[in-house]
Design brief:
- This protein is mainly alpha-helical.
- It has three domains: 47 residues, no CATH class; 37 residues; 48 residues.
- It has three helices and two strands; from the N terminus they run αββαα.
- The N terminus is likely disordered.
Length: 188
Amino acid sequence: MQEHDLDAPYLDTVLHEPDGTSRLFLEDDPPISVEDGPATSVEYDASMPSVTKWASSASAIFLFLFLVLAGVGVALAWRLTEMNKPTATPEGFAELQQQLKSVAADLSAVRHTLDQQSAAIDRQSAANHDQFTRIQEQISRQSIALLSASPLADKPTPPPKPAQHPAHVSTQDSSKPRQVAPPLPPKQ
């Protein structure tokens, strides 16, 4: 190892002054040789901080941080309790609540009336359908009676088919062949 390797500046090195004080090594200071280095003896050096001083400063920092965090926690807890307290109801709230109850009761009555009217319309529709079917049957019987009383009554007539609802009419005529006219010749 060469001598200039030991001359490298150590910025965190503590220099001991002749008057007994200590300071950090600065770049402007002359290079330190091995002979000028810190003492390697185990003797007590008053310039070095003791373990008790370090422990007391660490506990002071810990105590400070603990108090800060405890204060923040207490402030947050107080804020949460303030937010959860029931607030006074504004003026007119009871009146507004009563009006809402009244509107809800009115809406319930309207719904009940609509349900009744819907049921009545369904019953009337069923009654109208039954009445329509009876009228069709009556017309069918009268038609048969008129045909049997006519002079053409000698010919047997087939019995009338029961009246069918237009949606249920089958396409029976589709099985019969249809006559289609031949295409016209093209014009010249």
